[in-house]
Structures are given as C-alpha cells and as structure tokens.
Amino acid sequence: MPLSSTLTGMRVLVTGGAGFIGSQFVRRLVESGDEVSVLDKLTYAGNRANLEGVEHRFHEGDIADPAAVERAAEGVEAIVNFAAETHVDRSILGPAEFILTDVLGTQVLLDYARHHQIRHLQVSTDEVYGDIPLGADACAEDAPIRASSPYSASKAGGDLQVLAYVRTYDVDALITRGANTYGARQYPEKFLPLFITNAFEGSHLPVYGDGKQRREWLHVEDHCAGIELALRKGEAGNVYNVGGQERENMDVVRRILDLTGGSPDLVRHVADRPGHDRRYAVDSTKLRNLGWQPQHSFDAGGLEETVDWYRDNREWWEPIKSGEYKQYYETQYASRLS
Ligand code: NAD
Ligand code: DAU
After folding, report:
1. Stated pTM of the model
2. What's the average model confidence in pLDDT over 73-90?
3. Quick check: is 128 in a domain?
4. Is residue 152 a part of any domain in this protein?
5. pLDDT digits (tens, 9 = 90+) for 193-213
6. What residue numbers bound the domain in which 96 lies?
7. Which of 35, 70, 106, 314 has the greatest CB tally within 10 Å of its CB?
8. Which protein residues touch ligand 1 with a CB less than 6 Å away?
9. Which of 112, 129, 151, 310 is catalytic?
10. For the chain, what is the domain count?
11. Quick check: is 34 in a domain?
C-alpha cells in the first residue's frame, strides 16, 4: 500500500545515512518535516560530518545486528536502506563484507519490517542488470538480473530477499534501482570524485581499459527525489528504475580536465577492471509515471557545480585521502600505474 496518506511528518529510519546519498536523503526528509533516525556503522565510507547541521537521531551500529536494528527502528513507520558496501573495485579485492552487509543486513531489516508491519524501501542499483549492449534499448524493471561483480551480485541478493519477503510474508517492501550518482560528499574512491580531486592534486587519472565504457549520470538530488517519491507513492512488490544521462567515460574525463584546468598528460590508460560492464542504461518511465522529473543536467551545470564543490571543500576530502585510503589506493593502483 502506498504511504501517500502520510505525505509528511513520518518517522523514518535511514540506514547508511552518514554516506554520500543517504546523508543527502536525510537532509531532504528533514526539510520536508519528517522525523529521521539514522543507523550507520561508520565504515570507511561513513562520515558524520556529512550530517552536520541536519536534525536527526544518530545510532552507530550494524544493519546485520538485530539488536542494533531494534534500538534504532523503535517507533518508525518506514525503513529506507542505503547501508551497503558500495565500491565495485573493493568487492573484487574482498567480497565477504559485501555479502554480510548487502545480503544478510538487508534480511535483518526485512525481518524487522515484517514483525512490525512497516514499509521497507531498498535502495538498489542499475548494476544488477549487468551489461546492456551498445545500441540496445534501455532496460525496464522486468529485465533479467545479470550481476557481473561481487558488488552487484550482493545487491541482487538483497533485491531478491525483498521480493521474496513481499511474496512469502506480505511485507510492504519495494525497490529503487539508481544509476551512477554524482554530487557533493561522494567518497573519493569512485570515478568522478577520484578524478576531480586527483586533477586538483596534479595526480594521474587512471582510466580503466579503453575508457569507452558508458554510464548514466544521475544527480544526487534527483536520485533522492526519486527514492522519496517511491517511498511515499510506490506500490509494494514493485521495482522503480532511477536513470540518468548516458555518457562515455573518456568524454567525462575530458570535461573534468576542462573544468579543473588539469593537464591531459595526467590521463593514464591502465589495466581494466576484471568483469567490467561496458554499458548501463535503464528506462525510468515507471517512476516518471509516478511524477518523477529530474531537475539537473549533467552537461549544463551538474558536473560543473560538482567540480566547484570539490574545489571549495578541500577540508572535506583532503583528510579522507590519507590513512586507510592511501593503503587502498596503493593496493588498487600502484602496479597499474607503475
Ligand atoms: P556510501 O559508500 O557513500 O555510504 C554507505 C554508507 O553505509 C556509509 O555511511 C557506511 O558507513 C554505511 N554502512 C556500510 N555498511 C553498514 C552496515 N553493515 N551497517 C550500517 N551501516 C553501514 O554509499 P552511497 O554511494 O551513498 O550508496 C548508498 C546506497 O545507494 C547503496 O545501497 C548503494 O548500493 C546504492 N546506490 C549507489 C549509487 C552510486 O552511484 N553511489 C547508485 C545506485 C545505488
Ligand atoms: O551504476 C550504479 C553504481 O555506480 C552504484 O551501484 C555503485 O555503488 C557505484 O560505485 C557505481 O558503480 P560503477 O562501477 O559504475 O562506478 P565507479 O565510480 O567505480 O566507476 C565508473 C566508471 O569509471 C566505470 O566504468 C569504471 C571507471 N573507472 C572507475 C575508477 C574508480 C575508471 O576508469 N577508473 C577508476 O579509477
């Protein structure tokens, strides 16, 4: 049943609310007048500074721990699950954490939703559809699941749990599948913030393979607007794609160099990601029919505004690019760049 009867003033648990998209979603709900609790394990990707100035109740804990979920979810009317291990390259280095959080953690949250008869919205990804061949139509929500990486396989596992809980236990649960999201406060391991901050630092830009892979770019505010709409108006058992604007990686790299003033000599084509998907493309007609209308254009302002944010907020990303990050960077890139 949609939640449209309670348009605002809901009590919501946002898991993974200290991460990139989750923190923007918390900000959005609070501005709409909702009461928000956050449950976050504060992994390397979680950052309480992302929630500075946003009124919320914070619980540090693991979504795979039923006691932590019980405490954080007390009294809420819905759970929106952003908590996940999210980086494909890290999943290739070590898949175990991905299964624990993205599959087992999702099941623990679903059990809570089942026993307390509340709504569960699962924030998932277009990566579960795998490669979409060049020239093929963007895929709708009933396309087969063809996960390529341990990350996308773990997200697909979470999605299948959601659909099974709807069918078996009649849980009020639904799924959104978003495209590559960009904007402020994204951990600088992902393509855009990595390349933007490296360009500012005069470091190499490690392009995987030929750089002709294609992704759809979705502004974080448009992604959050889509998730909020699905939360309030979506139907249980349904999946809603949230697409973006499709661009080839090398075109994006050239735009980043223009916007940052970085030298083209920084670009290095390095060994490709194993199992690398060439193209993602999703059809968002179903969400548009609910009323979703993206407000940001990647080329006309969206990317530029994002580059400006990283230029103006070095105190946010410079401390991150030390410690654990340096170790990860060394493992992931040293031999590729040597
Ligand atoms: P992120 O990596 O920036 O943040 C993830 C957050 O989850 C962090 O705050 C982390 O501390 C927390 N977390 C991780 N494991 C946890 C656990 N076991 N218990 C509690 N908290 C835990 O991620 P993001 O990019 O903001 O992505 C959020 C969600 O959106 C994920 O589910 C991801 O799969 C999905 N998604 C992301 C994109 C994208 O382009 N970034 C696109 C589509 C879908
Ligand atoms: O499509 C949605 C997904 O987008 C989300 O579910 C994931 O959480 C998010 O990480 C993202 O996955 P991708 O693998 O598409 O994003 P990533 O930023 O890692 O890479 C984007 C493209 O850039 C991809 O083709 C790989 C390429 N790339 C990435 C990195 C980190 C490079 O060429 N070099 C790099 O160093």
Report:
1. 0.98
2. 98
3. yes
4. yes
5. 999 999 999 999 999 999 999
6. 11-182+218-244
7. 106
8. 15-16, 18-22, 39-43, 45-46, 62-64, 82-86, 101, 105, 123, 125, 155, 178, 180-181, 187
9. 151
10. 1
11. yes
* CATH code for position 87: 3.40.50.720
Ligand 1 centroid – CA 21 distance (Å): 7
Residues with CB under 6 A from ligand 2: 86-89, 125-127, 179-180, 190-191, 194, 206-208, 213, 215, 249, 273, 280
Going from the Cα of 218 to the center of ligand 1, the distance in angstroms, rounded, reads 16
In a domain, 252, yes or no: no
Q: Is the pLDDT of residue 323 over 90?
A: no
Q: Is 280 a catalytic residue?
A: no
pLDDT, one tens digit per residue, over 16-71 is 999 999 999 999 999 999 999 999 999 999 999 999 999 999 999 999 999 999 99
**Which two structure tokens, joined as six digits, stand for 238?**
């349904």
**Whose alpha carbon is nearest atom 22 of ligand 2?**
191
pLDDT at 266 over 50: yes
